[in-house]
Amino acid sequence: MVKIEQVVGIRVITLDEVDSTNEYAKSIVREVPEGTVVVAKRQTAGRGRKGRSWTSPEGGLWLSVILKPPKVDPRLVFVGALAVVDTLADFGIASGIKWPNDVWAGGKKIAGVLTEGKVGEYTILGVGLNVNNPIPEELRETATAMVNFTGVKLPLERVLERLLFHLDGWYRVLKERPEIMMAKVRERTFILGRVVRVVEDDDVLIGRAVDVLDDGSLLLDIGGQLRRVLYGDVSLRFF
Ligand code: ATP
Ligand code: BTN
User: Fold this and answer.
1) From ligand 1's centre to the CA of 48, what distance in Å?
2) pLDDT score for 66
3) I need a surface site. Which of 51, 81, 183, 233 has the fewest CB within 10 A?
4) Is the separation of the CB atoms in 96 and 41 below 8 Å?
5) 88-91, Cβ contacts within 8 angstroms, sequence gap of 24 or more
6) Do 101 and 114 form a contact (C-beta atoms < 8 A)?
7) Which CATH class is domain 12-188?
8) Any bridge partners for residue 12, and if so which?
9) Measured between alpha carbons, how far is 6 from 38 in angstroms, rounded to an integer?
10) pTM above 0.95?
């Protein structure tokens, strides 16, 4: 029998409060092995992409995984997104990926993934998943939490355990069979077939999302012309 070595979650550092688990993870990256996870009960300065703030009160899962892949791979964001989708399914919640870094359930955002890295050194895979935490009034139109589907609070430890299990699994699949991971991303990306608006620097593109390519980019059909959109500082809305 082949023994599979666990990577994600071999060490878990639990904090009561931190500014951002991604920042904390960066500060210890050289002292800890790959797969170390930093999880905090609450973040005082949780961040989304483009420096947007990420609301992180007690009751949610706010964590960062320290990865040391041989080279920076933009597809690492999908390891986080797929692991969240699988974790939600374990608790009976159907969800899908809003390419590239969000997970949506019941028409609202339930989780976000933020990858940050230094070429040749590390990638921090940050995952924020709303579990039992209250959603602030101003986000209620667009955001939701697991408890809104289950009606009862979930054991956070159990959700964490499932999430780490799936993160570890998808990280392995990315390293060994990336095409299998990308096939699953395609299957889970709910914006495919829909009209989307992508803002890329100063460029605004409106077209139909037709595919996620093996390199992780999104293929848009703009009036019959195909255009690839790379994962980066893009903003996407769907209709
Ligand atoms: P895009 O990047 O395509 O514009 P987005 O609006 O989801 O999509 P992100 O940078 O991915 O933007 O996510 C950050 C946004 O998520 C914040 O601006 C805020 O609106 C929202 N947000 C903040 N905290 C939470 C939370 N706990 N749950 C859900 N959404 C949140
Ligand atoms: C997004 O949707 O833009 C990504 C949100 C990522 C939030 C997580 S919570 C844990 C980690 N620490 C942070 O400051 N951000 C990520």
Assistant:
1) 6
2) 98
3) 51
4) no
5) 88/146, 90/162, 91/146, 91/149, 91/150, 91/154, 91/159, 91/162
6) yes
7) alpha beta
8) 37
9) 16
10) yes
In terms of Cα–Cα distance, which of 123, 139, 117, 1 is closest to 60? 139
Q: Quick check: bond before 100 cis, omega within 30?
A: yes
In whole angstroms, what is the distance from residue 57 CA to residue 55 CA? 6
Beta strand pairing call for 225-229 and 218-222:
antiparallel
- The structural domains of the chain, with segments of one domain joined by +, span 12-188, 195-238
- When the candidates are 1.10.3720.10, 2.30.30.100, 2.60.120.260, 3.40.50.360, the CATH number that belongs to 195-238 is 2.30.30.100
Amino acid in the structure at residue 199:
V
**How confident is the model over 185-212, as pLDDT tens digits?**
999 999 999 999 999 888 899 999 999 9
Beta strands in 19-121 (DSSP E): 37-43, 61-67, 96-98, 102-105, 108-118
Query: Which ranges of the chain does DSSP label H, i.e. alpha helix?
Result: 21-28, 76-90, 147-150, 156-176, 178-188
Question: Which of 152, 162, 153, 164 has the alpha carbon at shortest distance from 90?
Answer: 162
Q: Is 57 in the pocket of ligand 2 (CB under 6 A)?
A: no
Q: For residue 47, which atom of ligand 2 is closest to its CA?
A: 14
Q: Which residue is listed with tokens 């009862």? A: 152
Determine which residue's CA is closest to atom 31 belonging to ligand 1: 54
